[in-house]
Write a structure and sequence with these properties.
Strand content: over 45%
Number of strands: 8
Strand order of the largest sheet: 1-8-3-6
Order of helices and strands: EEEEHEEEE
Largest sheet: 4 strands, antiparallel
């Protein structure tokens, strides 16, 4: 298990994985996602490089509430194969801090 923290800045997006997920097997991943900035909403996505560059959603893995709310996603790694993981700001304009725990 590990935790990633980051800030979605003026671009409105944050790249979590630098290369696409590469898996040939079926395994379960658990994501706990939390937006830590009031007045904004964030979404956790898996998609293509083009989706990320355009700032559009691919497969939505999680959405955010306000600070203090963590949302759990349980997904088969096979569904993520070939996709990158990223965060998009969906509501608000302020820089938005988040945490993502992967198990």
């Amino acid at each position: 298990m590990f935790t990633i923290t980051g800030v979605v800045g003026s671009s409105g997006k944050y790249l979590v994985t630098g290369i696409p997920v590469d898996t040939k097997s079926h395994a379960v991943l658990k994501f706990a996602f939390e937006n830590q900035t009031s007045g904004t909403n964030l979404g956790l996505f898996a998609g293509t490089d083009a989706d990320f560059t355009a700032g559009t959603g691919g497969l939505q893995l999680s959405d955010s509430g306000g600070p203090g709310f963590q949302f759990l996603t349980i997904i088969d790694t096979h569904k993520l194969s070939g996709k990158i993981i990223y965060v998009l700001r969906e509501v608000g304009t302020a820089d938005s801090q988040f945490s993502l725990t992967v198990d």
